[in-house]
């Protein structure tokens, strides 16, 4: 039993719509072996899992065999930790309820758990990153959408059904001009503070004013959040205002989140955080100006320390240590 | 040790600005003895605690002595569970940091813990009320203010500092007409959905229109939420609209709270819930219309089963069972 707890490695799987990236990770959070399999066009999930296990077996042998592996964690969209099921994933090639944790566990003979990307990121941050030793924090992932992983008393909040922690879908604009969200509602945080939301803001500002900006050099519907970040870093005033607008909305939302769980930190992760202080300064400013007096000057606002390439795999792998 | 766990009673203290009400409570949630002491004008907290213990000792003897008592729980404003301190209470006669848990524990020789009123209500609901067996729910107290007690994985969420769960101070109106809140900010949920908030709504509607309503029989600045409930129950259209307005704001707010912890129930407690379906129907309607598809038709919206007179004492006492 004691020896079981000493197994040196876990497997992490970052399951994306295009690729499935595997890493074997040690207790320090170093990825010591890696492989990947295409997700796209793998229409039969049984064949897909078989292909994954074939690829995995090679790197498992490299590190000394399956008896060195404690468990496997999967970070995936629409994943439910309680059931181990991926439920009708919008961006994966499979329909219905996919019991992916069990499918991997049956083939590999080790415990397997899955959770959504943002929860995996939060667990990774606790195991290897900026949240080491923290019991109460909120992870906000700023990618194509806005995701969140909430940790209370050292545990990820999964709620009654496994789907808790969708702070990207808190309503931040109730006005008639609120933006439509992919979820079918209007005014969600994600419509403003995701990479897509920043691009929408840019397109609106560029098309509705005559102000000079580097962003006019790009066809309107091709402007991305990355373009805005590049322009802002070159001193473009319009681009800087776009980040101020985005950060203000996010900081105000975080002030409300504090009233829920009074976290010791908000940790931001994902593409948008590359904008650095252009985004973080307005977040901090809006947070300080809006948070209830009880919480003032308490929560840190920090950018994830995990490097982008490996972070999703690391996060998923960290789930393995909890099994 | 085993015998210690078999002690049949806990003490609950509901510490209010006017009175301090004590109850000795058994494991079923029956209050078997009760006493009270004035809080108001007890300017020396040492004398106050001495008076409390003198009153308590009588009822402790009645139930068989202190060796029958497992612990004591206190529900109080501005109370911090982690520290056992009441911190600069606005509505109590003492200033500074009052280590009330320790003061009672030293005198009585039993473990004592304290928490704020809304958290105590949530714990009481878990121990004796509608939340028996629930691991994830949100208690909303609708009194002079709006309080909340959030339970995740069977534990009250205290956050990093002991002050988590102030959902009455989530901002629900960012417009220029947002109402001023006692916390110094504008647009807090509490400015609309507390008893005071309902009275404000009534005063606004009565003074800004000519519509006939029973509420005109009352001097404008004396209209209370109770008056509105009485008028509504008599079929007064304006009064019913006031509850619809209140319930809509509260239901929309709860839809956002679901994105945080996906609770299996929202439990409403306090004076305003006496309005019954006049309030609950619009809450449910707004919740259903606004909640993210993931959470639809999941959470129950229920009114506390604990009777008003004893509920605060019961809630506080339930904290004792956790020690």
TrEMBL record, chains A, B:
Organismal lineage: Bacteria, Pseudomonadati, Bacteroidota, Bacteroidia, Bacteroidales
SUPFAM superfamilies documented for this protein: Actin-like ATPase domain
Provenance organism: Bacteroides eggerthii
Protein name listed in UniProt: ROK family protein
Domain of life of the organism encoding this protein: Bacteria
Family indicated by similarity: Belongs to the ROK (NagC/XylR) family.
InterPro entries assigned: ATPase_NBD, ROK, ROK_cs
């Amino acid at each position: 039993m004691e020896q079981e707890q000493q197994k040196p490695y876990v497997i992490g799987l970052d399951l994306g719509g295009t690729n499935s990236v595997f890493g074997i990770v040690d207790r320090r959070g170093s990825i010591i072996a890696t492989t990947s399999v295409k997700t796209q066009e793998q229409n039969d999930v049984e064949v897909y899992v078989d292909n994954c296990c074939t690829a995995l077996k090679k790197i498992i042998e490299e590190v000394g065999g399956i008896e060195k592996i404690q468990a496997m964690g999967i970070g995936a969209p629409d994943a439910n930790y309680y059931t181990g099921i991926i439920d009708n994933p919008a961006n994966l090639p499979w329909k219905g309820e996919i019991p992916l944790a069990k499918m991997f566990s049956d083939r590999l003979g080790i415990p397997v758990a899955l959770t959504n990307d943002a929860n995996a990121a939060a667990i990774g941050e606790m195991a290897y990153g900026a949240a080491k030793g923290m019991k109460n924090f909120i992870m906000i992932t700023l990618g194509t959408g806005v995701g969140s992983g909430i940790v209370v008393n050292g545990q990820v909040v999964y709620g009654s059904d496994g789907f808790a922690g969708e702070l990207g879908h808190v309503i931040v604009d109730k006005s008639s001009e609120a933006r439509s969200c992919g979820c079918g509602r209007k005014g969600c945080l994600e419509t403003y503070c995701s990479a897509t939301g920043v691009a929408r803001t840019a397109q609106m500002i560029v098309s509705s004013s005559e102000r000079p900006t580097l962003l006019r050099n790009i066809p309107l519907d091709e402007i991305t959040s990355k373009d805005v970040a590049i322009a802002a870093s070159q001193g473009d005033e319009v681009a800087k205002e776009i980040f101020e607008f985005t950060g203000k909305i996010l900081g105000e939302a975080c002030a409300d989140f504090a009233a829920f769980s009074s976290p010791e930190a908000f940790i931001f992760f994902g593409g948008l955080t590359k904008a650095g202080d252009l985004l973080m300064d307005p977040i901090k400013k809006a947070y300080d100006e809006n948070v209830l007096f009880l919480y003032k000057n308490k929560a840190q606002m920090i950018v994830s320390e995990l490097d982008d390439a490996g972070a999703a795999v690391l996060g998923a792998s960290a789930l393995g240590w909890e099994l």
